[in-house]
Structures are given as structure tokens and as C-alpha cells.
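User: quick one, fold this
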Amino acid sequence: EVQLVESGGGLVQPGGSLRLSCAASGFTFSNYAMSWVRQAPGKGLEWVSSIGSGGGSPRYVDSVKGRFTISRDNAKNTMYLLMNNLKPEDTAVYYCNVGPWFGRGTQVTVSS
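Assistant:
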């Protein structure tokens, strides 16, 4: 059974930082590209970032380029999203994604 468990969300002031983690199990983590997607209040899912199976080829939605960094540790079956210079518009539930599977998400709220 594929399981994706996100953690690291919280309340942060504008300009602050958070690091999200996604712990994966139930599949061969190192064989799959992984993604982060988010859903802001009242809006649909938005793709945020992806990373190749070996940790290469990171891609980002334009709105987070230069502020977010995706990474993974295949030895720990874990993916990360380092989010710097957070803005109120980054407020959303952030989900880990592989293929058709999603985790339950972690809430990120950016507010003063």
C-alpha cells in the first residue's frame, strides 16, 4: 500500500521559512519522480514542484522559483520542500504526490 505522509507545515510570518517533508512507503521510492502540489482556500489543486527519481531535474511553478527548493533522500525514502521568503499567497494545504497517489497534506499558513 502506497503511503505518503507530509509534515512540517505551520503558521509563519511573511518572509519566513518552512521545510516540508514527505515520508514515503509501499513502493520503490528511488524509482519514481515525485511532486509537491498545493490547494489554496477555495481554489483547485496547483502543481508546485517536481524532482526526478535520482534527485535531478527539479522544476518549479513560476510563482515559487527562486524561493522554494525541492530535494529528496532516497536512502530515507523522503522528499523535502524548503520554502523561503514565504508570501501570504503561499497559504495552502501542501500535498506530496507520486503517480495517482497523494498524501493527506500539511497546512501552511503565511500571515502576520
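User: anything notable?
Assistant: The first strand starts at residue 3 and ends at 7.
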